[in-house]
Amino acid sequence: MTQEAPLPSERRAQLIARVRETGSARVSELSRWLGVTPVTVRRDLAVLVADGALEKVHGGARVPAAATSDGATTGVGAAGVAATTTSGATAPAGRTAAGLPAGRGAHAPAATGVPAPEGRFPDRDERPTIGMVVPSLDYYWPEVIRGARAATHDTARLILRGGSYDVDHIRHQLASLVGDRGDGTGVDGLLVAPPAGGPESTELADWLAGLDLPVVLMERRLAAGPYREPLESVATDHALGAGTAVRHLAERGHRKIGLVTSRTSPHTSAVERGFRAAVEELGLDAVLDVETVPQSDPAWSDDVAAVLDRCADAEATALLVHSDREAISLVEHAQERGIRVPADLAVVAYDDEVAALADPPLTAVRPPKAAIGAAAVELVRRRLADGDDRPVHRIELSPRLLVRSST
């Protein structure tokens, strides 16, 4: 006969008893002991902490400092727990003291609370809530969001926040997600694309690393703590993408190649690194390697004019331009000067957001944006299931080159 799962009030009473027996306990340990998901344990602990029955610590809970360590205490609180707790915890019904279902041998695997193989949580109430903060809702990130939404279908709830490239704004959005949702808990995990570079970014990374929940960076690499340990992340190999573009142009017979990047993009350094490495490896002539203001800046017209002047002086025959908007505008300015694309100047765009809409359609490097969102969700889910025993994962995905008329 199958043992029925305990009611929430019974489960919370068991949690209190277990923590009082050991003094403190981690979410991963309690999850295995009860045979429920870490999400369920986190939410139960949040209710018990709010009720004063337990005290929150990083990764778990402990007996409140004011509580007596010996003897029994009885209480009924907002958690719905009416239980007498003593110095000895009783194992959940149908389980041994080690937390194994009754009848399992000493070497049988303990229940882990890991979702079923198909990735579905057994009950909709068991689904984790994942917060997602991105710097933009109108360029690059919509496809990442779609990938995350598809990955959370029937397995998690996704709460989206549109931020900016301002650290304070991003921090405010994150704090609102981590804070109370009205039921005593915040989100169970975070997906975030924070600003990179500078002391404020370092402080934000340290704050994220100190949160008692899974955090996965998207299209960013950050480290935290005194040893600068990396946070979990999913990112595109932008250096590889730039190198692929250079190799494509070299295959087309171009020897004098230039690079135009935006000084405001967090991906610029990786694109530059990949471009320079490929040019050196292939023995090409990098006649131009400049950073410009973004296309939306009033100074863009001056910058693009200077770029085209330098291309003419150096007899450049091809350019890699990051990103699409700058590439399209550069092509328009070139055509106004009578420069034919691709006959006189081949152009490869980087991002492939709107490159196909240009005239002519632009060959472009496309980061796997939807896959970034999906992989980030999976990292959060696995961290929730496996706990702190899981090593930090840093996933790097390869972009694609889509060849069109501009080369």
TrEMBL record:
Keywords: DNA-binding, Transcription, Transcription regulation. The keyword Amino-acid biosynthesis does not apply. SMART domains: HTH_DEOR. It holds the Pfam family HTH_DeoR. Signal peptide: none annotated. Residues 88-106 have a biased composition (Low complexity). Residues 8-63 form the HTH deoR-type domain. PROSITE patterns: HTH_DEOR_1, HTH_DEOR_2. One of its GO terms (molecular function) is transcription cis-regulatory region binding. Residues 88-128 are annotated as: Disordered. This is LacI family transcriptional regulator.
